């Protein structure tokens, strides 16, 4: 995907994810998300073939698992850890990007006095 198209796709994803986090009522979320995705689709013809059908996207983004996944904050769990921690991340992981997440995990472990932290 070209850089400009990728940036447009990322912006669309950000808008949709912000809506998922903000809207607590599932029927309203489904309606608002479908409206957002349908509204965005014509604005990005160069990535139209990369976009899944609206109904499929709405169904995936409104599942309890997906909503919980977005809302989960691992810091309280990390704060309770006092044992050695091994964190393994893959460079091809698209959900947990190592460059973004590993420094934050390390910082959280150190902030809560876990002395078993090393890079």
Commentary on this structure:
The model has no long low-confidence stretch (mean pLDDT 81). Helix 1 (3-22) packs antiparallel against helix 2 (26-40) and helix 2 packs antiparallel against helix 3 (54-61). The two termini are 33 Å apart. The protein has two domains: 3-71, no CATH class; 75-111, no CATH class. It is elongated, with a radius of gyration of 18 Å. 59% of the residues lie in helices and 0% in strands. By secondary structure, it is mainly alpha-helical.
For the CA atoms, what is the radius of gyration? 18 Å
SS content category? mainly alpha
Q: How many structurally independent domains?
A: 2
Largest sheet: none
Task: Determine the fraction of residues in helical runs and give it as a percent range.
Answer: 55-70%
Low-confidence stretches: none
Q: Indicate the overall shape.
A: elongated
Let me know the number of strands.
Answer: 0
Series of secondary-structure elements, N-terminal to C-terminal:
HHHHHH
Strand content: under 5%
Name the features.
119 residues, mainly alpha, 2 domains, 6 helices, 0% strand, elongated
């Amino acid at each position: 995907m070209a850089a400009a198209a990728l940036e447009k796709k990322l912006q669309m994803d950000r808008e949709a994810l912000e809506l998922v986090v903000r809207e607590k009522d599932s029927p309203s979320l489904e309606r608002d998300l479908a409206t957002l995705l349908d509204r965005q689709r014509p604005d990005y013809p160069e990535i139209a073939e990369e976009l899944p059908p609206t109904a499929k996207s709405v169904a995936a983004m409104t599942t309890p698992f997906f909503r919980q996944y977005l809302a989960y904050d691992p810091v309280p769990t990390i704060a309770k850890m006092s044992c050695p921690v091994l964190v393994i991340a893959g460079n091809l992981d698209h959900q947990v990007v190592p460059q973004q997440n590993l420094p934050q995990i390390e910082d959280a472990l150190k902030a809560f006095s876990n002395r078993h932290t090393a890079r």
